[in-house]
Amino acid sequence: MIGLVVWQQLLDGLGWVLARIYDFVPNYGLAIIILTIAIRAVLLPLGFKQIKSMQNMQALQPKLKEIQRKYKNNRQKQQEEQMKLYKESGVSPFSGCLPMLLTLPFLFAMYAVIRQPTLNPSTDPQHQGAFVVTNNHLPQDSALFQNVLTHQNTDFLFMNLQCNLVGAGTQVPIRYKDPSDGQVKQLPGPGNPTDPVGAQIYGKGDTQLSFPATTQGVLDCGTSRFPDIVPYVLIVALMVGLTFFQTFQIQRASPPAAQSSQQQQITRLMPLLFAFFGLQFPAGLVVYWTVSNALQIAQQTYLIRKGHIGPEALERQIQAQKAKTENAEPKRGIMSWMTDMAQGAQSRRDDLQKQQEQKQRPKPSGGGQRGSSGRPKKGGSGQAKKRPQPPAEPKGDRSDPGGRGKRGVGPGNQLKRTSQPDPPEDDDE
User: Fold this and answer.
1) Beta strand pairing call for 201-202 and 131-134
2) Across residues 234-241, what is the average pLDDT?
3) What is the DSSP string of 227-239?
4) Cα–Cα distance for residue pair 18/154, rounded to 1 Å
C-alpha cells in the first residue's frame, strides 16, 4: 500500500515538472527531451556507478567460469569461492542488471504521464451523459493538460506524440468501457459516425475544469499511411539502434569470454523487444527512450575513455579492494563499545584493589636495605640502627716493657693494674 502511494506521488511529481517545463518551452517534444535530460542528470552519479558495476560483473565472468570448472563436483565450495571473488573485487553479483532496473521505473512512469488521460462516464446524477478524467498525472490547471486532453499542439518532428507507429497515418478511434453493460465503445464526438456530438468533460472527482473541453471520437494521427508513417518508423528505428549500440559498447569493453551464450542471446533480443514496444507506445515515450539511450551511450563512452571500465579497470579495482581490506580497521559496533567500557571499569577496580592491599600490608621491622658495598643506604625509614661496640682494649706505652700503659684505659669502674711482685710459690708443690 505504501509502495503504491509512493509510486503515485512519483507520477504526479513527474507530471508537475513536465507541465512546468511546458510553460517555459511550449513544445511538447522539447519539454519531454528537457525532462529526460533532467532525469539523467539527477541519476548521473548512480548511473556511473551502475555502469561500472555491470561491466565489472561481466569482466569477472572468465574467473567465475574457472571456479565453476575447478569445483564442478563441490557445489558448496564453488559458491564459497565465487562469493570470495565478489568480495575481493568489490562487485555485487546482482550488478549486471542494475542499470536496466534503474531506468525501467522511469520508462513506466513516463508512459503513465505521457499517455492521454482516460475518460469514463460520470456517475454524478447532475452530470448525466458527461465524462470525467481518470488516470491523469498532469496538473488540471496547466496548459499542457488542456492541450493533451483536447488533443491540440502535441506535434513534434511531423509526428503526433500521442500516436504510435501502428496508428500512424490513420484516424484512431478513442474508446472507453461503458459500466452499464461492460462493453468497449467509441467516445462521442467528431469522428464518431453514430454520435458526432461531443460530451462535456469534467475533471477528477467531477470537478469543473478551468477551460471548456468536450470529447472527441478519434485521434488524428494523419490522413494517409504514407508518408505520415515515415517519421514514426525513423524514431523507432533510432531507438532500437541506440539500444543495440548501448549493449554492444559494453560487450566490446569486456573480455571475449565475459558473457555466457544465454546472456549474449538476451542482449540480442532486448533491442527487438523494445522495437515491439515502440509499435505500441506513444511516440512521446519513444522520444524519451531514444534520448535516454543516447545519454547512456555518452556516459559509457566517457567511462571507457577515462579507463573507469574495462578489464584493466577491474584489475585496479581488485588491487585497491585488497589494499583496503588489509588496512581497514574492524568496524566497531555497540557491542564492541560496551565490551571496552566493561573492560575499562574492571581494570580500574583491579588497580584500586591493589592500592588498598598495599596500604593494609604491615611494614617490615628488620634492617634497612643495603647497597652493593654492604653499607646501609642513607635516607629512608628502613636505615639500620648501629650496634653498640665493645670498649677498645687500652694500648700501652711503647716505652713500657709490659706494654701496659695508662693510655687507652676505658672509663668506668675498672681495676687499675699495679706493678706488684708475683705471689710466692707454694712450697708444697
Assistant:
1) parallel
2) 93
3) HHTHHHHHHHHHH
4) 13
What are the sequence ranges of the domains in the chain?
30-112+229-324, 118-150+171-220
Cα distances from 264 to residues 102, 147, 259, 268, in angstroms, run: 21, 44, 6, 6
Provide the grid cell at 309.
571500465
pLDDT beyond 90 at 386: no
At 303, list the grid cell: 567511462
State the pTM of this model: 0.68
Task: Encode pLDDT of 15-51 as tens digits.
Answer: 999 999 999 999 999 999 999 999 989 888 777 777 6
Supply the DSSP string of 366-379, one letter for each residue. S---B-TTSSBPSS
96 dihedral zone (left: phi>0; alpha: psi -120 to 50; beta): alpha
d(CA 312, CA 303) in angstroms, rounded, equals 13
Q: How far is CA 390 from CA 110, 406, 408, in A?
A: 119, 19, 14
Question: Helices 98-114 and 2-24, interaxial angle, to 10°?
Answer: 70
- Percent helix, percent strand, percent coil in the chain, to nearest 5: 50, 5, 40
Question: Measuring CA to CA, how many Å separate 104 from each of 100, 110, 261, 275?
Answer: 6, 10, 24, 15
Cα angle vertex 116, ends 19, 8, to 5°?
A: 65
Q: How many CB atoms lie within 10 A of CB 14?
A: 21
Share above pLDDT 70 across residues of the chain, in percent, rounded to a whole number: 68
- 340-367 confidence digits (pLDDT tens): 777 777 788 788 888 888 877 766 655 5
**Residue 278 or residue 344, greater confidence:** 278
As a whole number of angstroms, the distance between CA 289 and CA 283 comes to 10
